[in-house]
Amino acid sequence: MSARIVVHSLDHALAAASAAAGLGKPVALASAPGAGTYAGPTWFLAVVEAARSAHPGARVTAVLDCAGEAGSALAALRAGARRVRFSGRCDTARRLAEIAAALGAEIERGPPPPALDLLGERDPAGACRAWLLAHGTPP
């Protein structure tokens, strides 16, 4: 599993992708909790794609958190998100997982894995490098 970094902006995503490319380690760019609802999938997926384009050597995956909002999770899947966090009801999560599987995507449940949250980081690039060195899988 890739080391996870929570990004809140394009600058954060670029810092994480740059560090991943430079270290030859994969990275999972994760949204803030509930970002699928308040920022929307289009914004988040565009940020991730811009980071991938700027650092084509980086192995970048993305996780969009939709909290317990089934409509946001469905919108994220329809927009092309391949991994969506959903914390809502179990029966709803099962149905979303069926839809996700048909689209080649996944619904992520349970406690999130450890992550570096870049909110408020004064040196996002340095924090990303240190996190990936400590938590990233071998190249």
Key traits:
alpha/beta, 139 residues, 6 helices, six-stranded parallel sheet, elongated, 17% strand, TIM Barrel
Structure, described:
The protein is an alpha/beta fold and 139 residues long. It is 48% helix and 17% strand. It has helices at residues 10-23, 35-38, 41-54, 70-79, 90-102, 124-135; strands at residues 3-6, 27-30, 60-65, 83-85, 106-108, 115-117. A six-stranded parallel sheet has the order 5-4-3-2-1-6. Strand 3, helix 4 (70-79) and strand 4 (83-85) form a beta-alpha-beta unit. The longest helix has 14 residues, at 10-23. The chain is elongated. The model has no long low-confidence stretch (mean pLDDT 96).
